[in-house]
Amino acid sequence: MSWIPRHPTDVVATLSPLRRRPGDPTQLVDDAGAVWRTTLMSDGAATLRVTRRGDALRCDAWGPGAREAVASAPDLAGGADDPTGFDPITPLVTEAHRRNPGLRMPRTGRVFEALVPAVLEQRVISAQAHASWRHLLRRFGAVAPGPTPRRMRVVPSPEQWARIPSWEWHRAGVDPARSRTIVVAARYADRLEEAAAMAPDDALARLRHVPGIGEWTAAEIAQRAFGDPDALSVGDYHLSNYVGHAMFGRDMTDDEMLEALEPWRGHRQRVVRLLGAAGVPGKPRRAPRAAFVDHRSR
């Protein structure tokens, strides 16, 4: 399937938030710049390859869920993202926008797929969460269909996540609180998937109804599953200080960050992504990095 998007689209930059760092077994960028991604659709597993050919984008797919995955590819690549009303306002954001005209907000439409890695990232450093994600996918994910550039995995179904025994979570370095949130959410997976078709506030409320999913986790899910350009990860360990230093050269609390970003309401997450994509520096690192917490020893 090929299509010409409504707005300029940088496929690699647009889909980068869906990749949990290098080594993620569900997404990679090959040497030709094509993005490979696996997903579990209602019809089954699928592997997608999204490439750019001039002004057009092309999606090829393999596996029982291929037809459904191809149909969702335009939204995945930001086709549902309409930046028409976005006003950069300040010179800093204007320059970041100018340098990244093809940055769109991706929309997977797969809520539970976004939920699991977001929960794994609660209260731990990113490297630890990503290591847990890789371990669990390699242990319980199915081998991806198609001629993938390297061995890739497809996420387990909610039922499979719910059946992972406690000792396997332990081996993956996931504490009982986070594993319990995923297992409980799996029981309501069908109801959670319905949130993809809801209005933003209703969708966030549906997500937060699950014990263990708060404002930060719901926003992380909304950014990826819904393509929400305004979903801001309030409560993030680094975000408020990043925004504060990138835009004003000082530390900020969450409340101060929300006040500072208020002029961009409706596009606050877009602003954060543009600043990051433009390489705008945040707070200088002076303190040592947060420690890796080994839950396996507890």
TrEMBL record:
Reaction(s) this enzyme catalyzes, per UniProt: Hydrolysis of alkylated DNA, releasing 3-methyladenine, 3-methylguanine, 7-methylguanine and 7-methyladenine
Stretches assigned to the HhH-GPD domain: 120-298
Keyword hit for DNA repair: yes
GO biological process, one term: DNA alkylation repair
UniProt entry keywords in alphabetical sequence: DNA damage, DNA repair
Family annotation (SMART domains): ENDO3c (SM00478)
GO CC aspect terms: cytoplasm; protein-DNA complex
GO molecular function: alkylated DNA binding; DNA-3-methyladenine glycosylase activity; DNA-7-methylguanine glycosylase activity
InterPro entries: Alkylbase_DNA_Glycosylase/TA (IPR051912), DNA_glycosylase (IPR011257), HhH-GPD_domain (IPR003265)
EC numbers for this chain: 3.2.2.21
Protein name (record): DNA-3-methyladenine glycosylase II
Organism: Agromyces rhizosphaerae
